Amino acid sequence: MADDEEQDDALAAAIRQRAAAAPDYVQRAVLLALADFAAAQQRRITLTSGEIDGRSWDHESW
User: Residue 22: what are its φ and ψ, rounded to 5°?
Assistant: First the structure.
């Protein structure tokens, strides 16, 4: 899971770097919104994988 978080950090960093170099406000705003969206999606993936893991180990649900 650490690899996923590192990839997300690299993705967000790359998007934010592009945003910093963007020539106009609209492009910068879209890129920053994309970085926020990518971070939110990664949080959802992490939470969902934890939920799946927790449910699979719940012996009462077997």
Answer: -65, 140
Q: List pLDDT tens digits, range 17-27.
A: 999 999 999 99
Q: Which residue has the tokens 């920053």?
A: 32
Q: How is residue 17 written in tokens?
A: 């770097």
What does the angle CA 6 – CA 39 – CA 24 come to, to the nearest 5 degrees? Answer: 110
Q: Is the pLDDT reported for residue 42 higher than 50?
A: yes
- Give the global pTM: 0.69
Collect all residues with Cβ–Cβ distance below 8 Å to 53 and sequence separation of at least 6: none
Q: Which position has the token pair 């012996």?
A: 59
**Across the chain, what does the average pLDDT equal?**
82
Strands (E), the chain: none
